[in-house]
Amino acid sequence: MEKIVEQGLLYDFYGQLLTAHQQRIYEQAVYENLSYNEIAEAEGISRQAVHDLIRRTTALMKRYENRLGMIRRFRSMRAAADGLCEAAGKAGTRDELAARVLQIAQQIRKDLD
Fold first, then answer.
1. CA dihedral of 18, 21, 22, 26, whole degrees rounded to 10
2. Using alpha carbons only, what angle is made at residue 92 by residues 89 and 96, rounded to the nearest 5 degrees?
3. Which CATH number is associated with domain 2-68?
4. Residue 78: other Cβ atoms inside 10 A
5. What is the mean pLDDT of the chain?
6. Other Cβ atoms within 10 Å of 26 Cβ, number
7. Predicted structure pTM score
8. Where are the domains of the chain?
9. Integer angstrom CA distances of residue 97 from 10, 18, 86
10. Alpha helix (H) ranges present in 1-113?
């Protein structure tokens, strides 16, 4: 399950950087959950070609993530937003809430730099 989530996130962030052919094959494998044999038959290519394309495309998107860090930043901002929600729900006083919000805002700024 975790692999599918990772593949989905990679594609959500970096799928537009792929060729139309890569996008079509990757979507069939990951989102439509078609077998490599089904994709190969529909695309008129070999099963091995599908396997290689999925492997290379995944590796390419991982390299994009290593260089750009968009998913890492997304996860960091999501965690910060969760922290804000939690702080708003747990703050005993206005000053406690203000201090926690300031701390989280500073973390967000750091992550964006």
1. 130
2. 95
3. 1.10.10.10
4. 10
5. 89
6. 21
7. 0.78
8. 2-68, 72-112
9. 35, 44, 10
10. 2-14, 20-30, 36-43, 47-68, 70-90, 94-112
Q: d(Cα 51, Cα 46) in Å, to the nearest integer?
A: 9
Q: Over the stretch 74-98, which tens digit does the pLDDT of each residue have?
A: 898 888 888 877 877 776 777 777 8
Dihedral of CA 85/87/93/99: which sign?
negative
Tokens of 49: 């070609």
The Cα 82–Cα 33 span in angstroms is 31
Beta carbons within 8 Å of 13's beta carbon, 6+ residues apart = 61, 64, 65, 70, 71, 74
Both structure tokens of 47 = 């099963």
